[in-house]
Amino acid sequence: MAGGDITYGTAIPGESELRLLGDLAGRRILELGCPFPANPVTYAQRGAKAIVVDPSPERLAEVRAAADTAEVRIESHRAETAELGFATSGSIDVVVSAGALDAAEDLNRVFRQVHRVLKPSGIFVLALGHPITRMLDGGEVVLRRTYWAAEGRTVSGLFAALGRAGFQVEVLAEPMPTGAASLVPPVLVLRTRKLGI
Predict the structure, then answer these.
(1) 55 Rama sector, left if φ>0, alpha if ψ -120 to 50, beta otherwise
(2) Is 44 in contact with 72 (CB distance < 8 Å)?
(3) In the beta sheet, which residues pair with residue 142?
(4) Which regions of 92-186 does DSSP assign to beta strands (E)?
(5) Rounded distance, CA 6 to CA 117, Å?
(6) Res 138 pLDDT > 90
(7) Cβ(114)–Cβ(31) under 8 Å?
(8) What angle do CA 87, 18, 156 make, to 5 degrees?
(9) What mean pLDDT do residues 33-45 have?
(10) How confident is the model at residue 3 (pLDDT cuts 50, 70, 90)?
(11) Complete domains list, the chain, with CATH
């Protein structure tokens, strides 16, 4: 397998263990937000057409520098994660968002746009901060009863929003940190599939 591992969060198992994406060769993969610049490089090294959208010019510069170092080509767009007008409907095989949607203002809009750009039966993998971890503050339980408490989001709301947008959740993973004595998983990783056309 060419390239490094695909990362879904800091210090947790990656794609080599979770196996959410399958063979990438010849596929068009869109990364929504890019806190891990090595991910799109790995997609390209494995034969995919890698595309990145991120609002941060600094992050996009990191992606370009990583691509130059690896001598691969990556298409990049400076935009919010819900602004996918550069992609035609049904043109993307896989969308991945690793840690970039926790702060998204309108997840419903993001999900609708992802559904629009994905091919029929396309895969959408998203990794978000785990709700249990969000309830802890320095090891102490704090009174935060909702996931993404400031926005009033809940896990059931996340599933409902994915369903409304036309996605079926196929895998829910809660990878434990590697090499750490943590009792809770830091990240919730979901693989969903586009339903309909």
Answers:
(1) alpha
(2) yes
(3) none
(4) 92-98, 118-129, 136-137, 140-141, 167-173
(5) 22
(6) no
(7) no
(8) 70
(9) 95
(10) low
(11) 23-194 (3.40.50.150)
